[in-house]
Predict the 3D structure of the following.
Amino acid sequence: MNGLASKESLHLQTEVSFMKIKIAYGLLILGAMLLFSADADAQCAMCKTAAESSLESGSSAAAGINKGVLYLFLTPYVVGGTIAFFWWRARKRAAQGN
């Protein structure tokens, strides 16, 4: 039995080491992406021109464009979060039922 326990312990250590390597590679890739990322304009040329001229004239159209961008940005996360919540709740109920 002692040999079996040491074999399981070695397997667990190998699994933990592999997980640490995956995390290190992930952080390295994330750091490289942040370090070498280029500045990007988030608007098309026409929207940018309209927003700049709106700001210069004192109109609130630029604020409307920014709110629209935020709306488009957040929508996929809200939908994904809702799906994840209902999936989690269904799995939790199924586990309690067993």
Notes: The mean pLDDT is 81. Residues 61-97 form the longest helix (37 residues). Residues 41-98 form one domain. The helical segments are 2-35, 45-57, 61-97.
